[in-house]
Amino acid sequence: MACTTLNTGMSSVLAWLAVILCLTVYCVGSSPPNFILLFADDLGFGDLGCFGHPTSVTQHLDKLAAGGLRFTDFYVTSPGCSPSRASLLTGRYQTRSGIFPGVLSPGSRGGLPLNETTIAEVLKPLGYNTAMMGKWHLGVGLNGTYLPTRQGFDSYLGIPYSHDQGPCHNLTCFPPDVKCFGFCDRGVVTVPLIHNENIVQQPVDFLNLETAYSKFASKFIRNSVQKGQPFFLYYPSHHTHYPQFAGPRAAGKSRRGPFGDALMELDLTVGEILHTLKETGVLNNTLIFFTADNGPELLRMSRGGNAGPMKCGKATTYEGGIREPAIAYWHGRISPGVTHELASSLDILPTFAMLAGAPPPKVTLDGVDMSKILFQQGPSKRESMFFYPLDPSEKIGVYALRMGKYKAHYYTRGSIKSSTTPDQDCHETAPQKQHDPPLLFDLEADPSENYSLSPQEHPEVAIVLKHMQHLRDDFQASMVFGESQGGRGTDPALEPCCNPSCTPKPDCCTC
Q1: Fewer CB atoms near the end CB (10 Å): N or C, the chain?
Q2: Which residue out of 27, 53, 60, 137 is catalytically annotated?
């Protein structure tokens, strides 16, 4: 049993206490727990029904929230796709792995460095079966150098980047002859579907994609259970990134239009995963964690998502860009409730590792074990969160810092991704601005970041800012930037093509 591995240097009393703690809190029967990590795309704090949206149809996610733990103060490390995903899988800020600036493209020369350790690589030595389906967005590279199968996943089915990083003509809604409205990349290959390291379809049949994912997940879970293997399934969905799509099960079925249809389809896949867990008898031994990569793309208005009461959205370091809905569900182990403790996607790797009995990677981890929050045994170990823009620099450093209930902005900047809202701070016309002293907000009283605290009205502000400045200085002194993977440029020859020797490219890349 993985949980019973003890440090031989412990005293006998401490050893027995560790065994008792393991048996009464974490271990379930004689098997280590299974893990399912669900990761939505461009989903805002206010987009789920269980987080307050009046017309979102998310019955299965709502059931997870009702029967599990709902986080109100959960953060990702970046307001953009690739860097946020790197941090999730490694437990390290994206600046360490070099996943910046911006996001990776189909022909990117770089990707998540192979010397980074993912959650899958932490769990595999313990006998875990590992699989991923969905959006990777951490590089493809020459001959699939950076694909999930090179990063600890035994099997993979999915699109290696965003579904809009290809011509929109292959992205169709239900019925098939109705084109989705949207702006997608031109002059690159059509979007491929990859199984392990082979392209099995190009362009992707989006109408049946979620059905393929559901079948993949069900088969993976059933095979793992049949073999008696613990498993880790990572499902980073394409939903609800713009332009939205949905197959016959969900298209036109929600009251919220295309965004609601896409969200419903994601929720239906979650429901089928839950059904398989119940049928195979492993629901009680499976921790399911749900969150999203970054805030909504407000540029798309009603097609872009909803940040709820949070300020701005995607590509900004305001709350709407980096505070996400999060749910932890473990039937019979996690008590239903709501937590206001500070937590982050960085904390998922160390938490899964601890629960599985796996040693953490021998690198600098920015995540902390959040099992005490999950099992309501105490406060969060996380004191603070640091936020960089999509193009971080060592010279400028941290843009914003959350400490306790306070958040300080040392720099602010808007983005085209968050334009169209009435708040001019969100727009691309709001340039980078340094704040000295920093803007300071009490997020418990003012989660919308409307009212900066002044020392004249709030005497404690000076003390708070001094403490936060020390935290920022210490953090920046410890931060070692990795080689910029986005800065390595692109090469059209690296774009995935099912007929690599065909001409003329990219139009001939179909199969």
Answers
A1: N
A2: 137
Is the pTM higher than 0.85? The answer reads: yes
- Six-digit token pair at 345? 């996607």
- Looking at residue 181, the DSSP 8-state letter turns out to be P
Residue 440 three-state SS: strand
CATH of residue 421's domain is: 3.30.1120.10
- Residue 258: asked if its preceding bond is cis (omega within 30°), the reply is no
Domain contains 180 = yes
Q: CATH number for the domain including 137?
A: 3.40.720.10
Q: Hey, how many other C-beta atoms are within 10 angstroms of the C-beta on 281? A: 9
- The structure tokens 């299974």 sit at 34
Q: Quick one: which of 80, 146, 81, 69 has its CA closest to 109?
A: 146
Confidence band (pLDDT; 50, 70, 90) for 45?
very high
Catalytic residue among 22, 81, 168, 184: 81
Residue matched to tokens 């350790």: 117
CB 418 within 8 A of CB 430: no
**pLDDT digit string (tens) for 116-141?**
999 999 999 999 999 999 999 999 99
- Element containing residue 263 per DSSP (H, E): helix 257-279
- Can 81 be counted among the known catalytic residues? yes
Say if CB 149 and CB 160 are below 8 A apart.
Answer: no
Q: Examine the fold and report which residue of 335, 350, 383 is the final residue of a domain before the chain moves on.
A: 383
Q: Is the pLDDT confidence value at 13 over 50? A: no
